[in-house]
Design brief:
The protein has a domain at 53-177: Alpha/Beta hydrolase fold, catalytic domain (Rossmann fold). Helix content is 43%, strand content 11%. The chain has a four-stranded parallel sheet, with helices on both faces. Strand 2 (77-81), helix 5 (95-99) and strand 3 (104-109) form a beta-alpha-beta unit. The longest helix has 22 residues, at 157-178. Helix 3 (32-47) crosses helix 4 (61-72). The chain is α/β, with parallel strands linked by helices and 195 residues long.
Length: 195
């Protein structure tokens, strides 16, 4: 996620954070409620002193947790890099996606075993939230394309990543253009209306 945070920094302010298990040096992730609460706290900290649109972007588990946070906190868009649709036991973890109303971009590698694209397309058809899929041809769960495929295409991973970033920027531009204008509080009694 470090490299993607740096790339996304060219688009806007990026605020990174670590989940409690990471800060403690553990390999096993915390339970979902702990992850969601840590993400909400990081979002609240990031919002202090800032104005403007809020986009949650995450990689793998972080993207799934961001979706849960978007159910509880107002955000303008979600960017999921390598969403882990399929759980460790093979079950589809789609419930949160069906509950979303926030515009969402899935950036998925076509070789990602954790997110079979046919299953994701089925989920997207049933979602209420506007969703977009950007396919990284030949990409794995980390959106990396094999050296052989890159050689055959006559390009490097940097070109693949640049196209992917372009797709993210285009999605955000569209999602932010469609968002409703911020509501203006009603004037207090006796105050003139702002004009």
């Amino acid at each position: 996620m470090s490299a993607w945070a740096e790339r996304l920094g060219d688009v806007g302010d990026v605020v990174r954070f670590d989940y409690p298990y990471m800060r403690a040096g553990r390999r096993t992730p915390d339970r979902l409620p702990v992850l969601v609460e840590a993400h909400r706290e990081a979002l609240a900290d990031a919002r202090r002193g800032r104005h403007g649109p809020v986009i949650l972007a995450g990689k793998s588990m972080g993207s799934r947790v961001a979706c849960h946070v978007a159910l509880e906190e107002p955000v303008d868009a979600l960017v999921c890099l390598g969403y882990p649709l399929r759980g460790a036991r093979g079950d589809l973890r789609s419930e949160v996606l069906f509950a979303l109303r926030t515009p969402i971009l899935f950036v998925q590698g076509t070789r990602d075993p954790l997110c079979p694209l046919d299953a994701l397309e089925d989920v997207r058809r049933r979602m209420s939230a506007p969703s977009t899929l950007y396919r990284v041809e030949g990409g794995n769960h980390s959106l990396e394309v094999s050296v052989r495929a890159l050689r055959a295409a006559g390009e490097g991973q940097a070109e693949v990543d640049a196209r992917t970033l372009g797709a993210i920027v285009a999605f955000l531009r569209g999602a932010l253009e469609r968002r409703p204008p911020p509501s203006t509080p009603a004037p207090e009694a006796g105050e003139p209306s702002p004009e």
